[in-house]
Known about the structure:
Shape of chain B: globular
Number of helices of chain B: 0
Oligomer: heterodimer
Largest interface: A-B, 22 and 24 residues
Order of helices and strands of chain A: EEEEEEEEEEE
Largest sheet of chain A: 7 strands, mixed
Amino acid sequence: EVQLVESGGGLVQPGGSLRLSCAASGFTVSSNYMSWVRQAPGKGLEWVSVIYSGGSTDYADSVKGRFTISRDNSKNTLYLQMNSLRAEDTAVYYCARAHHPDYFDYWGQGTLVTVSS
Amino acid sequence: SYVLTQPPSVSVAPGKTARITCGGNNIGSKGVHWYQQKPGQAPVLVVYYDSDRPSGIPERFSGSNSGNTATLTISRVEAGDEADYYCQVWESSGDHWVFGGGTKLTVL
């Protein structure tokens, strides 16, 4: 059974940093396209970042230069390092598996990141 | 960047048919995917590649895509279908996975 479990969310001050984790089971992270998608309170879904099976990465313009996506193949885990956080980064962050590449077929339950002083 | 436009809300009586639209420039040339999201839960894929259903999704959920509009159709609507629905396409440039703003389906 495919499972994605996020962790690492919490309250952080503007300008601060946070690292999110997404532990996967039932499939191999490194063989898939893995993404982070976020949802601000009461708002819609916004794609954030992707790491392709080959290891290359891409980011939404809104987070480029501040966020870094990575994976640990030995732990079958996806990460999102978030630096220089802003109030507008406040959201539930979901990790999701992309079906090469088109759509997201599996999602985690999400982890809430709150950026506030 | 590519923009997808959805109506903010759609209301339907139980047992009737709900249609949720997703507008985009020449969207008929793209593959459109639909997600259902209930309060406090993660999104769930209900239709992919315009009209295909993942296993476990009822046949009541169907989709179409032509011209500048894609449509998610929910037949014989049930109270449990009340949720937010998002359309999504993939773009080879820019923000690759583009979502519509979402439509709140209310079952009267």
